[in-house]
Amino acid sequence: MPDAPGFDDMPLFDMPAARRRLQDRFLRAGPEAVDDRELLELLLSGRHAADDAGDPAGALLDTFGAAPRALAARPDRLRTVPGLSEDAIAALKAAEALGIRMAREEVPETVRPSLGSYDKVIEYCRTLAGHREVEEFRILYLDRKNRLIADECIQKGSVCHAPVYPREVCVRCLELQASAIVAVHNHPSHCPEPSRADIEMTKRIEDALRTIEVTLLDHLIVTPTGSVSFQARGLL
Question: Under a CB-based contact definition with an 8 Å cutoff, are residues 40 and 63 in contact?
Fold first, then answer.
């Protein structure tokens, strides 16, 4: 008879005992002790398809390439992944929401590019948008003391473009009584370098905001692994 498959040869979803050992290792040694697939397996444990078949954690990585991108995926995209139930999709989106809330808790009371704590703002923006599959343009609205009032996605686009209308930015600033903003958008290409269109669009927004006495403090381009600050580059 052939030897029984070992732990490394069998998928985790077929091995409740192995999953328990994975859970113990995760709780004992922390997140650095497990990889993306194992984290997804822990998150989705007991939340597979109705017949509990397939390998949803592996299917997520095959589809999105990395766990953060899977968490950031839209629910309709997640529904195309074999083996995922609605409970599993809800668990993924809840995990993403918790991550965003944790990052927001780290945002300093005062948001200003010149402060040493600004890296926390950049990290928050990367958590918000860095892993998205399409471009999103977001605004952080700030009060007179540069405290965060709200952050909102004002436009979603394609893999390389998200149209932004300065008039809409101004209207929302007036509605929220914002005194300053930080503009944020992601590059799904993973290259944070600003394009000519990015630079020209930023200038139009800055000019429009000046007419209502609102300051554009910065424009951040974020990716999963990097960022570019227009303020730091001297582009504002």
Answer: no
**Sheet hosting strand 215-222, strand order edge to edge:** 148-156, 136-142, 180-186, 215-222, 227-229
Q: In b/e form, how buried is each residue of 89-112, taking b as 16+ CB within 10 angstroms?
A: bebbbebbeeebeebeeebbeebb
- Digit-coded pLDDT (tens) for 194-227: 999 999 999 999 999 999 999 999 999 999 889 9
Beta-bridged to residue 183, according to DSSP, are 139, 219
What does the alpha-carbon distance between residue 18 and residue 34 come to, in Å, rounded to a whole number?
A: 13
Residue 219 belongs to what H/E stretch? strand 215-222
Angstrom distance (rounded) from CA 101 to CA 127: 10
Q: What is the pTM of this model?
A: 0.74
105 vs 174, higher pLDDT: 174
pLDDT tens digits, 31-44: 888 898 888 988 88
